[in-house]
Design brief:
This protein is of the alpha/beta class. Helices cover about 55% and strands about 15% of the residues. The chain folds into 2 domains: about 160 residues, NAD(P)-binding Rossmann-like Domain (Rossmann fold); about 90 residues, ProC C-terminal domain-like fold (Orthogonal Bundle), CATH 1.10.3730. Strands 3-2-1-4-5-6-7-8 form an 8-stranded mixed sheet, sandwiched between helices. It is globular. It binds NADP nicotinamide-adenine-dinucleotide phosphate. The site of NADP nicotinamide-adenine-dinucleotide phosphate has 24 residues, from helix 1 and helix 4.
């Protein structure tokens, strides 16, 4: 493609998630247009510029905005408003907000005359082209831009983000489950790396199957694995009796309540 037709991308707030997203965009979404990243964080921005020839570090946030079409905004929530108030945007630009807790309508008021504001919530594995990428409001062009970075989920209702954010609160629990199972295998005398390889690759394969299933099929996968009197039935029935899954749902409710309060009050 003619490089003049490629969108020029800017990044304000080159932190952990922005670095992962830029890597994902270049390595997996084949983004070859220019990407201007804010100098902060200095270590991360110089690492990106050293690694990719289309990444340039810019010490001025306004200069990033002046020279780009799509701006990815990824500072911490308490830094966001003061920073945006210092900057001037154009009406032909698009802002992609990664910062939690800001609605599209709130941001539009701050960055006017820019009106094309989208919310996108990547997770760290975006670096490997993996993970969910909920986007609101839906946009085909942006979905294509990020399609290699993970599964773009076009969201029609912004309040869906609370449910997705709550689910991301289970990442540590997921790792803990894998670690606990691995430790149990290792405690039987199995080499620790082999124990980790078996457990994590089994979960990886099952998660792949889940990611190809429809919503309705996903609900049936657990019972499809069960044979009467078999080992999967033994584990699943006992965990159901212990209300293990109900406990997970209760924790999700608690997280969602907390996230809704943050949105209402602006306080964590
Ligand atoms: N981490 C995740 O998994 C994740 C996922 C989805 C969304 N998010 C959202 O993404 C945002 C960033 O999260 P993060 O984990 O990447 O945090 P982070 O690593 O602390 O990144 C924030 C970055 O903003 C930079 N910054 C601060 N003030 C700036 C300024 N005036 N101009 C330019 N850059 C400035 C910081 O630079 P210094 O280091 O120099 O202070 C830092 O590099 C958060 O709002 C979070 O809600 C995070």
């Amino acid at each position: 493609m003619d490089s003049k037709l490629l969108p020029r991308i800017g990044v304000i707030g080159t932190g952990a998630i922005a670095e992962a997203l830029v890597i994902g965009m270049i390595d997996h979404s084949r983004c070859s247009g220019p990407i201007r990243v804010s100098i902060r964080n200095e270590q991360r921005s110089s690492r990106l510029a050293d690694r990719f020839e289309n990444v340039v570090v810019d010490p001025s946030n306004q200069s990033i905005i002046d020279q780009t079409d799509i701006i990815i905004f990824a500072v911490l929530p308490d830094q966001a408003v003061a920073l945006l108030n210092e900057l001037t945007f154009r009406d032909d630009q698009t802002l992609i907000n990664l910062v939690a807790g800001f609605s599209v309508s709130e941001l539009r008021k701050i960055v006017s005359p820019l009106s094309r504001v989208h919310r996108l919530i990547p997770l760290p594995p975006v670096e490997f082209g993996l993970g969910p990428l909920p986007m609101f409001p839906p946009c085909e062009d942006l979905a294509n831009l990020f399609s290699g970075c993970g599964k773009v989920i076009q969201v029609e209702d912004e309040t869906d983000f609370t449910g997705f954010a709550a689910v991301s609160g289970l990442m540590a629990t997921h790792h803990r489950l894998t670690a606990t199972v691995t430790q149990w295998v290792a405690s039987r005398g199995v080499n620790a790396d082999n124990a980790a390889a078996y457990t994590s690759h089994m979960f990886h394969a099952l998660t792949y199957l889940e990611s190809t299933a429809s919503g309705a099929d996903l609900q049936r996968l657990a019972r499809k694995c069960v044979t009467q009197g078999g080992i999967n039935e033994l584990a699943l029935d006992q965990l159901e009796e212990l209300q293990w899954f109900d406990q997970v749902v209760e924790r999700l409710d608690t997280i969602a309540d907390r996230l809704e309060k943050i949105v209402e009050t602006g306080n964590p």
